Amino acid sequence: MLDDRITLDYGSGGQKTSELIETLLVPSFQNDALSRLGDGAVLPALPSQPVFSTDSFVVSPWRFPGGNVGKLAVCGTVNDVCMAGGEPLYLSLAMVIEEGFAMESLREIVQSAAETAREAGVQIVTGDTKVVERGACDGIYLNTAGIGALRAPGLSPRAIREGDSVIVSGSAGCHGAAVMMARAGLGGGALRSDCMALHRLSAAVLACGGVRVLRDPTRGGVATTLNEFVEGSALGVELEEDAIPVDEAVETACGLLGLDPLYCACEGRLLAVTAPEQTEQALAALRALPGGEQAARIGSVTARFPGRVTLRNAFGGSRVLAKLAGAQLPRIC
Amino acid sequence: MRFDEGFRRPEGVPRLAQAIREQAGSRTLRFMEICGTHTMAIAKAGLRPLLAPQVRLLSGPGCPVCVTPAGVIDAVLELAARPGVTLVSYGDLLRVPGSARGDTLLRRRALGADVRVAYSPLEAVEIAAREPAREVVFLGVGFETTAPGTAACVLEAAERGLKNFSLLCLLKRTFPALRALLGAPGFSVDGFLCPGHVAAVTGAEAFAFLPREYGLPAVVAGFEPADLAASCALLTKMALAGTPRLVNTYTRLVSAEGNGPALAAIGRVFRPVDSEWRGLGLLPESGYALREPFRPFDAAERFGFRPKEHAGPAGCRCGDVIRGACEPRGCPLFGKACTPVDPVGPCMVSAEGSCAASWKYGDVLPREEE
To answer: Taking Cα atoms as reference points, which of B336, B337, B339, B332 lies closest to residue B355?
Structure first.
């Protein structure tokens, strides 16, 4: 029987740790590799070159409209493997938990991670639990690492050509705006994180061919990711402001908080640069899938402003979208 | 439909811009805005290139962070580092360096200072109530826009008898600075885009002295592209016809007489005092101080807050930029030694600073040859 609160004992490696693993973690994640409870998972050989990625998740608050840190931790690494051209297969999950964290909350996070992994077709095959003294972390931090099998070799910003299309799979900035609003105590309403696994969307886009590079615009948002594509290159990206899907709730929240949706994190969107010939097909493939309904071509690759991302608005004004200098801070008035 | 949707995605803007340019003909008109949110909105909408070269939009002292002298920031940093003090601030201020480069509240926080970001001054009062062992200082920055909320938080703290709450009042008053600017030698503009948010509090009529005393057209403007373009069109018309008036185009938010309860709260809590502005110097009655009954909440008195004079970083022309005497790219540090990642002056730090706007929204963009 698990206690209602996490104590240091649960991270001791002793009785309580075993209890946590056996009554919560193994049953939630249920797979053979994990059930053997070795020091590491022994996995079958991969069908192609391995893709390997890792990410840590420290979101505050840990539960936000549209998800929680467990779902986010699985999606984050699944998406990174997908964006690298891999088919995600296995994950590790490590947790750093603050003493006193509610067991109910941990259960919610673990179940959410398990459910998300199941949907994404990945197995959580190894993990770790540490408990730190009260005040040493903010509730709970997760880390996931993921292994996938390479499906699309050669994806790279260097493959981008003049005239290519830039497409996004859905509306920008939902996750960042939802978390910032929750943090400001202004949650509620229609605003929800876009947090989702991108395995289906990325597979669909890649199946169309002509994909130069894929990236999920997490920290720094769409604007920062596009800057990374063209930084130091002889090419730039020209966006059409009106073509970029931004939910009304996100736009309103950003107006209130003094943020720019194009710099707010997405956790369930992909940005792709594709050859012009494959663009329509890629858009159709995305739009046919859940989470891709709003997919849009938002701009194109140009040689006019090398190394820069520019945005043209409906009435002909245009401006540069620079890389984010640091965290977005709310403004005064 | 959202209340400002029609102002945000207007088809009329290019038409207006073209009409403005045609009317102005061979004249060059210089209009100044004095509001950080206008600075950003103009840059974000990409309006400057649409109106050029006939109309030039200048940014005046509208960014509260930018007009705060470096010596004051130094003293704030020192205050934040004191044991037992919790400094509550708007996010903008966290990256503003004092006179030592890189010394910011963000860095002081990393070194152990208790600095917290708030959206509302009332959050500071809540923190003080929740953590009675901490000395909670709210950093009151801004113009007439944030003054009412700041006044409300002092009233709330007084009501609740909070002994561990105080206000470091760095608030500024728009009108004395505007008059100082108008009186400065060599200062010349053809009209003012008046700040919609300030006017929402003070009332549009507060800007009536611009046409009356200075013969300058003045338009109280909102923040969407159509607001700005329409206001520029009116300014152009009045400037060319020589018929200066005050026009309020932001009637969906701004009344002639302003927000009564907000003005009453300001009047109850604050009195005007002389205040130091970066770029403008010491201006009479251009700041706010707590009135006598609220002096126990004055952080400056409680902590012996005494900013030293400091000229600001060498080479930095923020002072001139704030006066509209130098455009951001006229500063030798712009984009070289001074970028948003490693800012030298406050105009590059604040999201509403002219230099940050110019850098972020790219007046750096080469003009298109189309």
So the answer is: B339
Are B109 and B60 spatial neighbours (Cβ–Cβ below 8 Å)?
no
CA dist B308 and B302 (Å) reads 17
Interface predicted TM-score (ipTM) over 0.90: no
**3-class state of residue B275 by DSSP:** strand
Residues near B163 by beta carbon (within 8 Å), at least 6 away in sequence: none
Helix axis angle, A199-208 to A69-83, nearest 10°? 20
What domains does chain B contain, in order, with CATH numbers? 62-321 (3.40.50.11740)
Q: Identify each DSSP E strand in A23-112 by its residue range.
A: 50-57, 63-64, 67-68, 86-98
Structure-block tokens of residue A281: 């097909």
β-pairing, B114-117 vs B85-89, is parallel
Identify whether the C-beta of residue B192 lies closer than 8 Å to the C-beta of residue B33. yes
How far CA A62 is from CA of A54, A108, A140, A191, B27, in Å, comes to 19, 11, 7, 16, 58
Contact A310 B362 (CB under 8 A): yes
Which residue of B lies nearest to A258 if distances are taken between CA atoms?
B351
Which residue in B14, B17, B65 is closest to A332 by CB distance?
Answer: B65
The Cα–Cα gap between B285 and A107 comes to 59
Taking alpha carbons only, the member of A300, A284, A87, A295 closest to residue A202 is A87
Residue A242 at interface with chain B, using a CB cutoff of 8 Å: yes
pLDDT of residue B5: 57
Work out the mean pLDDT of chain B and round it to a whole number: 90
Chain A CB within 8 Å of residue B197 CB: yes
Q: B70, B250 in Cβ contact below 8 A?
A: no
- Omega before residue B307 within 30° of 0, cis: no
- Residue B366's pLDDT band, with cuts at 50, 70 and 90, is very low
Distance CA B90, CA B356 (A): 17
Name beta bridge partners: A103. Answer: none
Instruction: Give contacts of B 237-276 with A, CB under 8 A.
Output: none
Rounded distance between C-alpha atoms, residue A215 and residue A199, angstroms:
12
The amino acid that residue A166 corresponds to is V
Strands B165-169 and B135-140: parallel
Name all domains of chain A by residue range, CATH numbers in brackets: 8-150 (3.30.1330.10), 157-320 (3.90.650.10)
**What is the rounded radius of gyration, in angstroms, for the C-alpha atoms of chain A?**
21
Taking contacts as CB-CB distances below 8 angstroms, the residues of chain A near B14 are 315-316
Tokens describing residue A184: 């400001």
The answer to whether A252 faces chain B, any CB pair under 8 Å, is yes
Using the predicted structure, report yes or no on whether residue B369 has a pLDDT greater than 70: no
CB-based contact A122:A129 (threshold 8 Å): no
Contact B352 A331 (CB under 8 A): yes
* pLDDT over 90, % of chain A: 82
A320 touches chain B (CB under 8 A): yes
